[in-house]
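Convert to structure. Protein one:
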Amino acid sequence: MQIGIPAETVVGENRVAVTPETVKKLISTGHNVVIERGAGVNAAYIDSAYEQAGAKITEDAYAGSQLILKVRAPQGKEIEKLAAHTIVVAMFDPYRNPELDRFASQQVSAFALELLPRTLSRAQNMDVLSSQANLAGYKSVLLAANEYQRMFPMLMTAAGTVKPARVVIMGVGVAGLQAIATAKRLGAVVEATDLRPTAKDQVESLGGKWLDVPMSEEEQQRAAEAAKNGYGWTPGEQYIKDQAAIVDKAVANADIVITTALLPGRDAPRLIKAETVAKMKPGSVILDMAVETGGNVEGSKVGETVVTANGVKILGVPNIPATVATEASALYARNVFNFVETLFDQEKNFAINQDDEIQKALLVTHAGQVLLKRG
């Protein structure tokens, strides 16, 4: 079987779906790998490195390939290049992708890596969301620090003392935890908040301060039950009001705020309103990591730095993992290979097995049908 790796066409997408390391692994399974010329250049993986690993450089990686590996799903005219019964493995943004019907009508089997069931232990090494969020959390702090016109650590100088930056992290998932760790390493005072009370221990273990919101016994029970099942919980009206007051105060006093909250298949939750931004000090920086899906911050814009009337910068940086493309590609490529291995049968041939719980969860189009339930 021929495995094709086309170049990414989305503006600003510098990552690539395979690296020379994973090319060797794919070839060792007995399959051929073709890579579009220059596909890895933006991630510092040059054509000669792929050739040394055994891949063939081509002008069109779609031609003759039965398996396509990408970072972003094919779109527009790319879809027309897919032959019937081709398998595509990529990030499809499935709940927002308007072109799934086109994949189905062309008899393409599409696997959306974002749908990986993260509660399965054997799926952890395939989890692209976690690997990319980890890098995004790290880089988000550096991007914010670059815009911040003061220092992160406290400094004692002959000219006086420089106070440490106050950083607030909203959302303590993979990205949030890495952001806390990075901000602490840079010398900031860090506070963090999340709807999951269980995140408190993680925040404090990294040296951050937990922004505690009072909870009733009923809410504590509901939150604990949701945590057991791996789901979020819906807080009551009083909790929402209490949280809003605590967040408003913390953000108003912060120098840097990083928001990381995302909801699969839905717009990002609005965490910071304009009236809270209006209370912040001139020169403060907010980085909205959810800007591509509606934004956590009122006023953020994709790809723009918005400066408010009171001198606050709101950074709407899209696709942060692509700003550390070499490492992001390395991690993504390993995730992809680990998933592709589940598609091999005992003879190392590709065989889709819808009884496999991972394959079943990721398969969004197959045999002419859209399998994803978007309701």
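Protein two, convert as well:
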Amino acid sequence: MELLDKIQAISRWRHGDQRAPHKPLMLLYALSQYKKGHERLFKFESEVDDQVKELLVQYGPSRKAYHPEYPFWRLANEKDPFWELKNGEECIPRKSNKDPKKSELIKYNVMAGFDASSYQSLISDPTLIEKIASKLIQDNFPDTLQEELFVRFGFEVDTSTKQRDPNFRKNVLRAYNYRCAVCGFDLALDTVPVGIEAAHIKWKQYSGPCEVSNGIALCSIHHKAFDRGAISLDSEFRIRVSTAVCGGSLVDRLFWDFDTKKVHLPRIERNYPNIRMIEWHLREVFQTSS
């Protein structure tokens, strides 16, 4: 099996439709370091613990605790292996699962990374790194975050494989009368809207349907903020602003002035945001305080 196929087949922790981007973020971090010339294996304590935790905080759902040790360890247990552990033999597993505690990884100086043959494939063909990274990003994150992730990790921006429903944007914007549901922004040049976008409430990457009830019209600023978890909606269609949002007077006007206010809703009730989709966004995307 080719390396790209093995990575696409990685098992993801699933509990309903909860987001668990641990393995994709671990792999993106490793690939970005390989691109910079890093050796094959990474030391958990000094090169993964804080670095991958930061990625989980920024790009994963809000949780009481973050566990960079999970993907570091579990990637070695794939059905079609490509990831290797070193110094892990003495680690004692937790009582609740087969993973060792973080303290065990540190105690025994555990290292991990792509196995030797996979690593050789990557460094001998730099385009493979780009292909794998592109697939990981596009399969796990919405459009508004993809370019940010490409740039953050130092990969070439690739949008060639994006698949869009051509009617989703048209139907959502029409339902919301071509204006941002949060701030009412409705710039148009003649009849062409500018800076108004159709956002998925539940991401396509997590089986969110391309239906108007899973969409909301937002200006480009509020779309990015929505996908980043800076804002969300509650069951009464009121705007919630994350307590993590900070900035000057312009941020106050763009965000805090709208906190708890009701969004502009479509005229037709069946096009209102689906409550189950809103609940998913609140749980899996909105940034709550830990």
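The first strand starts at residue 42 and ends at 43. Residues 44-59 form the longest helix (16 residues).
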